[in-house]
Amino acid sequence: MDVPRVLDGGLSNQLAAAGHDLSDRLWSARLLRDDPSAIVAAHRAYYEAGADIATTASYQASFLGFGDDTPALLQLSVRLARQASYQADVDRRLFVAASVGPYGAVLADGSEYRGRYGLTVRELVDFHRPRIEILAAASPDFLALETIPDIDEAEALLAVIAGSGIPAWLSFSISGSSTRAGQPLASAFELVRDVPEILAVGINCCDPLDATAAVPLAAAASGKPVVVYPNSGEGWDAVARSWDGRRTFDPSVVRTWLRDGATLVGGCCQLGPEDIAAIAREARPT
Domains in the chain, ordered, with CATH? Predict the structure, then answer.
C-alpha cells in the first residue's frame, strides 16, 4: 500500500459497550451465531469513525469452538464486515480483513500471550489451514494473521498462505523487544522478507510504548511496510477478567509510526471508535 490505511479498533470492547456479554470462551465470535447484526453495527461504527479496514469477528472462531458450524460462521464473518462497508455512510473505499487469531486464542486460557503450546509447526499448520482456506474462499481483501506470540506459529501461518496469492499482514504480540514467547523481534520480522503474500509485518495487542519501539525494527528487519495496532495501555486481569490500570495510548504517536515505516495503523483492545477517529486524523491530516 502506498498510502496509510487506518484499521479499526477492538471489536470486543465495541460490542461490550453496546451491552453484549462476552464472558464465555468464544468471546466476540459467539455473536456470529447469536447476534450477527451486532457485529455489523460494530464494524459500521469503526468505518464511520475513520477506519478503512474492518477486521472480521473470526479471531476466536474455530472447529474446536463451533464444530460443524465453523465453515458457515467463518464465511459469515467476512460477509458481515462487507455488509457494514456497504451500509457505512462514507465516501472512501473500504476494505475487509479476515482475522486469523493464534491457536492459543481458541483455548481461552491466556495461551495466546505465551505461545510455546507444545505443538510442532506441522501440527499448527494442520490447525490453521482449514480455517484460512474457508476465510479465503469468502473473498476478503486481506488476511490478518494477528496476535501471533511466537516464531513457530508464524512459520506455520506463512507455510499455509505460501503460493496462495492472498495479501496478508502478520502481526506479533510482543513484550518489550521480544515476542511473547521470548524470541528476538528481529528474527520474527525477518521471516516475511521473501514472502510475497505478506504486504506488511508488525505488532498488535501490546503496550503502545513497546509497539512504537518495534516499528522501525520491523521495517529494517523485514524490508516490508509495517502494521501497528496496540492496546490502550491498560492491563488485562485474567483472574478478574477485566481491564485495569491507566490508558497510555496517545494518537499523536501515529505520526512517529508513519515516519518509521508504518502504512497500516489502528488500535486493538480498549481502543474504540473515538480513538480510531483520532488515529485517522493523524494519518490523514487535512
Answer: 5-283 (3.20.20.330)
